[in-house]
Structure formats: structure tokens, C-alpha cells
TrEMBL record:
Organism placement in taxonomy: Bacteria, Pseudomonadati, Pseudomonadota, Alphaproteobacteria, Sphingomonadales
Name by which UniProt lists this protein: Ferritin-like metal-binding protein YciE
Species assigned in the record: Sphingomonas rubra
Pfam families (UniProt xref): DUF892
Matches recorded under PANTHER family: PROTEIN YCIF
Amino acid sequence: MPASQDTIRDLFITGAKNLHAVEKQALSIMTPQVKRIEHYPEVADQLHRHIAETEQQIQRLDDILAEFDTGGSALKDAGLSLSGSMAAIVHSVAGDEILKNSFANYAFEHFEIAGYKSLLTLAEDGTFSKATSLLQQSLAEEQRMAQWLDEALPTITRRYAELYSEGGSSTAKV
């Protein structure tokens, strides 16, 4: 038996709030990273672009949630933002910070992609057509960033190895 429209609506709202918090977490991960990057300008450029996209994704989720007379969850937003900040701090002391950040960003983009795909399924089943187009836009942005990371990882790794061989891990980190 298919889920009722009330169930789909409730799950959709919960999913949108969760994704809102995930996007806040993404900001708390990327913002400290981009501030520390010295030797990887292409990574810094992509992070700046994706931070701006993420801010728009949060606004889109705010708009979607407003259609249901609700907003993001302050508790979820704060909790995930804190965990993102902690991850950024942990990576900053790693000898291979740029690599760890790249791995984490790659995984996180795919986590966001999965979240948007799931939410899109609920939007389609619930016939929330206004939400669908906004979610598709955000999904496309996440897919572009994941693709960029996928293609850039060999270059980042080689650059890290080059800098490491020139001056040790402290030069190669960021």
C-alpha cells in the first residue's frame, strides 16, 4: 500500500529540514577550508563558488519550507554546523590537510546528492511541483561540484606530493 499524502508531506518536511541542516553543515566545513588554502588556487576558486551556491541552496530550502508554513530546525542547523566545524578543525592539524579535505568534500557532496534525490522522490510523489524545480537546481549544483572534485583529485594529489617533496608536510598541507 502506498504511503498516504499526509505521510509523504510529513516526510518531505522532515527531509527538507534535515537537508537545510546539512547545507548549513556544508558551509561550516567549506568556509574554514577556503580561508586556509594557499597552494591550491583552483580548489579555493571552486570552494568560493560552491559556498555561494550552498547559500542559495539554503535559501531555496527556506522557500520550500515556507510553502509548508515552517522553517529550518535551529537545533538541527546548530548541531550539524558544529559537527562540520569540528571536522574542519580536525583536518587542519593533519599533515595532509588538503587531501583529507578533498576526500571529505567528495564524500559530503555525494551525501548531499543522495539527500536531494530522496527529497525529490518525495516531492514527486507528493506532487510538490514548486519544490521539485528548486530541488533539481540544487541537485545539479551538487552533482557539478562532485564531478569537479572527482576530476580534480588526481591534480590535487600530485600537487600535494610535489609540495611535500619540496618542503615537507607543512608546505604541502594547504
